[in-house]
Amino acid sequence: MGQQQLLLLVLSTVIVGLATVAGIQAFSENQAQASQDALVQRGTSIASDIQGLQGKPSQMGGIDLTGDDSDMGGGTLISRLGYENVTSSDSVKAEGAGSNAKCGISVTGGKALVGCHSSNATQDVTVGFDPTADPSVQTAFGDGQKDPFSSGGD
């Protein structure tokens, strides 16, 4: 083989290697973003279901976060929604958001907060529902469960 052929072989090997590394990196970033999007979707879905329960009369299984149910436990709310508790910590699975993805639900002061976490996502997501706020459903991002209504939401 001539020097020119060897040079082309080495150059093509380097180019293929760089393309492979770039592809792996792009896949990893896309996977993290997909997990983040799945957390937002799951949290918003749960908050929407809570909003639906808020609109029903209590005789039909509804809740009143501004009245008697203002400090309802997360486990009670999970069972009212028809979800299955995955742990004793009042949380439900967040399918499609990666390994150990779950959303915890808490109710305090007339607000329901849905905090979602996944080891694959870049940030935790908190979706809140406050029947007296406008808009009544807001989202916050960051580490730990944040109150989207006190931080202005995103």
Provide a quick synopsis of the model.
The chain has helices spanning 3-54, 74-81; strands at residues 91-93, 102-108, 111-117, 124-129, 137-142. With 154 residues, the protein is α+β, with helices and mostly antiparallel strands. The model has no long low-confidence stretch (mean pLDDT 84).
Element layout with pairings:
Blueprint: H1 3-54, H2 74-81, E1 91-93, E2 102-108, E3 111-117, E4 124-129, E5 137-142
Antiparallel strand pairs: 1-2, 2-3, 3-4, 4-5
3D architecture notes:
39% of the residues lie in helices and 19% in strands. With 154 residues, it is of the alpha+beta class. The protein has a five-stranded antiparallel beta sheet. The longest helix has 52 residues, at 3-54. A hairpin with a 2-residue loop joins strand 2 and strand 3. It has helices at 3-54, 74-81; strands at residues 91-93, 102-108, 111-117, 124-129, 137-142. It has two helices and five strands, in the order H-H-E-E-E-E-E.
Keywords:
154 residues, alpha+beta, 5-stranded antiparallel β-sheet, 39% helix, 19% strand, elongated
Mean pLDDT: 84
Unreliable residue stretches? none
Nearest-angstrom radius of gyration?
Answer: 23 Å
Q: Write down how many β-strands occur, each being a DSSP E stretch of 2 or more residues.
A: 5
Helix/strand order, N-terminal first: HHEEEEE
Beta-strand proportion: 15-25%
CA(first)-CA(last) distance: 62 Å
Q: Describe the main β-sheet briefly.
A: 5 strands, antiparallel
